[in-house]
Amino acid sequence: MLFFLISCLSFVLLSKSLPLKPLPPWASKMRLLSPWFWKELSCFLVFWLRKSWLSGVLLEIPSAMSMRRRNFSSKVENVEESVETSVLDLPELALECILGKLPSEGLCNMAAVCSSFRDRCRSDYLWERHMKEKWGRLIGCAAYREWQWRVACRNDLGVSEGCSRKHLVKSLCCSWPLSWILSKMENSNRQKSYLPADSMMSWYLSLENGKFWFPAQVYNRENGHVGFMLSCYDAELSYDSCTDTFNARYPPHGRRNIVIEEGVQWHRLRAPPVDTPSHDLHASDCLHDLHPGDHIEIQWRRNKEFPYGWWYGVIGHLETCSGNENLCHCHASDTVILEFNQYSPGSRWRRSSVSRKNHQEEGNEADGFYGGIRKLYNKEEITMWKQLWPTEVLE
User: Fold this and answer.
1) pLDDT, tens digit, for every residue of 26-53?
2) From CA 268, how far away is CA 224, in angstroms rounded?
3) Could you tell me if 362 and 312 are in contact, meaning their C-beta atoms sit under 8 angstroms apart?
4) Where is the F-box domain (predicted)?
5) Residue 80 to residues 74, 75, 86, 113, 255: CA-CA distances in angstroms?
């Protein structure tokens, strides 16, 4: 093979020095492909020579070591027995437990060991745990629908990037015999590089690398702007693994363009608690169960062009009520008092009221529009709002 390579190179050098007749028209087109062809051919020949040399060395080693095997047969047998032992020889349940304890990076590394581990380490059963542990708090129904739509539109999402390079080389060398070699290599590695787009592992990796923007909600949007304190707005999120933070992309509204906030921390994020789009009125089902002191979230927007945001507040007493729990009848009134205690007592944003029986969107262009109400029963949600309480009273 070495002689063949030297002959080819000599022929190329000699052909350049000899006067030749003008080439036919098709030769100028093929000349454009020559750098790619010779580059790929040289890589293939080097790979073949290395493989041939390594196989020759491996064939010489048994003959050189034959005498030693005869003298130390018992020791060699013990070594061979230990080499033949594999992790795959473990019982199925033990192997499953070991893989279940690996982190996500460990599963990715194990999937590259062999075809058997590849199939095991890509199973949805193993990746469901990692999805719940890291992403379960942020992934809601809206994010799942977005992922299903993405999978339906891009079935090739899980194909590795290495395949694109092979397709490029194949298009450049399609007129040469080397294309036959590349086609064989591509067919042999197709199963190794393919990752189902609808698999749990593909979804996890798309979240990790930030390529998948998913819907969620952000507390105190735009870096805690005073106009959004103690609110939670819809946004599309993209994860940045280098900083362990998120980029939040808020939808445009009114005359404002898309706003992108960088460096959003985990504690300022949540999955949408209700499956209501940001421009739709939430159907309130807790109005008759509201009492003074209850913690709530209510939809509010500046005007009709803006999306709703969820704002934290509490149910207050009527002005005619003394606040005595034994004498209070506010829960029987048709008017529900809303209090937003993050604002000063004299602020026009401090108190508002809605109808208990016929509640729809209420408000005006000056004070904004109040939408649906959801009562907070979960103590974790209430604690989260209190942790975001502003350090100063708002006006």
Assistant:
1) 444 444 445 555 555 555 555 555 555 4
2) 10
3) no
4) 84-130
5) 10, 9, 12, 21, 74
CA atoms within 13 A on the CB side of 72: 7
* This prediction's pTM: 0.68
Two tokens, residue 6? 């030297």
- Number of Cβ atoms within 10 Å of the Cβ of 294: 18
DSSP type of residue 370: E
Give 233: exposed, middle or buried? Use CB within 10 Å, 0-12, 13-18, 19+. Answer: buried
- Dump the DSSP string for 243-299: TTEEEEEEPPBTTB--EEEEEE-GGGEE--SS---TTS------GGG--TT-EEEEE
pLDDT tens per residue across span 187-229: 544 444 577 888 899 999 999 999 999 999 999 998 878 888 9
- The CA-atom distances, in angstroms, between 296 and each of 86, 237, 307, 339 are 58, 25, 19, 10
Q: Which two tokens stand for residue 21?
A: 């007749």
Q: Of how many residues is the chain composed?
A: 395
Residue 249, φ and ψ in degrees, nearest 5? -115, 110
Domain boundaries, the chain: 287-387
What DSSP letter does each residue of 154-214 carry, written as one string? -TTTTS-THHHHHHHHHHHSTTSTHHHHHHHHHHHHHHHH---TTSHHHHHHHHHTT---E
Residue 62: both structure tokens together: 């048994």
- Backbone phi and psi for residue 80, each to the nearest 5 degrees, phi listed first: -65, -40
